[in-house]
Amino acid sequence: MKNKLPYHILAISIIAIWGVTFINTKFLIINGLNPQEIFLLRFIIAYLGVWTFSPRKLFTDNWRDELTTMLLGISGGSLYFWAENTAIQYSLVNDVAFIVCNAPLLTLFLGMAFSKEIKATKPIVGGSFISLFGVALVIFNGSFILKLNPIGDFLALVAAGAWAVYSLLMRDMTKRYNVTFLTRKVFFYGIITILPAFLINPWQFPFEDLGKPVVWMNLVFLGVIAALICFVLWSIVIRELGALSSANYIYLSPVSTLIASAIFLKEPVTWISIVGSFMILLGLFIVGFYTKHEKDENRSR
Hints:
Layout: H1 5-30, H2 35-51, H3 63-90, H4 93-100, H5 103-114, H6 122-140, H7 150-173, H8 179-194, H9 197-200, H10 213-241, H11 243-248, H12 253-264, H13 271-300
Helix pairs in contact: 1-10, 1-12, 2-8, 2-10, 3-7, 3-8, 4-6, 4-7, 5-7, 6-13, 8-10
């Protein structure tokens, strides 16, 4: 039996890095870049980086798989980031963050609907809701002000659904293709499909300002570490742990952001956020335990 512990540790490490990207993005926005400009630049950096060591193969084996890689680039790239960032313009940041953190539950429901391999039991569903409640405590931090906005909340739900689709599609594709090849395709189609957004909101950031240390250093971190390296490794995590188990680690993202904000932005950590973090970990433990238990039972039959 293959030891999965290293992949669980890897998943936690990736989510920790993705949680920190909130800080990097905030610094870039303060310096004049808008979200879609940040996305385009980080994906271009990541694409150029992955091209140096990915297979030189240009296309997948058939047109269906090529369309699937395009969907991966849209769901895990342009659509996800565009929907999430645009939602923040209409809804409260906390509301958007909470709705986006429903991605693991949406992954579970979509997986149940379209895959016979993914089955939900009461402990798994219960553990997911415990983690989700913990996310609410961390994000809202005792000030639960839910300001409903149909446009913003719908876009946040679109972002969560897009990531769920990405997780399920990537799980199947990693069984047949090299992960670095798939990651390169994700970056390529993410870049191509974000370009129409600039017709609505044209590029405004001065190119000469890209040379500022605070700008290029944060862009390099987002492009090389958070995108290039983490996307490649996350594909491996999905392949080894499955779409459901890997998606549940997204619940840890607010905890990572909480810690990063306390360290870099000197934001206070309250007892409510500590309780919420504990509940997230408890829910993940329940889901992980019963997922492993069910897999072991299925092997013994």
